[in-house]
Amino acid sequence: MTMSQRGWTSSQPDVLLEGARIIRPFLPELLSQYVVTVSPNLAAMPAPVVVDQTLALALAVAQTGQKVDFLIVGTLSAYEPTREWMRRYLEDDLEANLDYIPTPGKPPKVPPAGVCTCPGGDLTWYRRTKGQPVPSCPNHGTLTCT
């Protein structure tokens, strides 16, 4: 799949699915200033909630074997912060995932202190330090860390 008009290029739908799992814990920070208005008759909802629910639905549908690439791309490309985060993730840019600030040049990748995943397969979270508290999965409660 090529989404050159959005600056994203990926030939692997699994990479998009993993990106959707990884970005979910960062949505409140990335989208804190955005709201979604579906209809003039309905109250506006915080964008992090809408985007997270859409990604959760996409990931659940993906587990049935259906393609959800364009739903993920459409959802995350709607906002500049998530569009940029995903572009960097797809380019395998470590700081998009771990807030790692590299030194000048091409530094070696710094591995995360741990990877935590949802048993339902819809969230992946990278622990930055050993003592960092692990968040809970918004859908299934707990994350399993390695």
Report the major sheet: 3 strands, antiparallel
Distance between the termini: 31 Å
Number of strands: 7
Mean pLDDT: 78
Q: Output the number of helix runs.
A: 6
Description:
Helix 1 (13-23) packs across helix 4 (69-76), helix 1 crosses helix 5 and helix 3 (47-62) runs antiparallel to helix 4. A 3-stranded antiparallel β-sheet has the order 6-5-7. A two-stranded antiparallel ribbon has the order 1-2. With 146 residues, it is α+β, with helices and mostly antiparallel strands. It has 6 helices and 7 strands. 26% of the residues are buried. A hairpin with a 4-residue loop joins strand 1 and strand 2. It has a domain at 2-98. The longest helix has 16 residues, at 47-62. The N and C termini lie far apart (31 Å). Helix content is 38%, strand content 12%.
Could you give the topology of this structure?
Elements: E1 2-3, E2 8-9, H1 13-23, H2 27-30, E3 35-36, E4 45-46, H3 47-62, H4 69-76, H5 80-90, H6 94-98, E5 114-117, E6 124-127, E7 144-145
Antiparallel strand pairs: 1-2, 3-4, 5-6, 5-7
Helix pairs in contact: 1-4, 1-5, 3-4
Quick gist of this model?
The chain is of the alpha+beta class and 146 residues long. Helices cover 38% and strands 12% of the residues.
Based on the model shown, name its key terms:
6 helices; two-stranded antiparallel ribbon; 12% strand; 7 strands; globular; disordered N terminus; 146 residues; three-stranded antiparallel sheet; alpha+beta; 38% helix; single chain
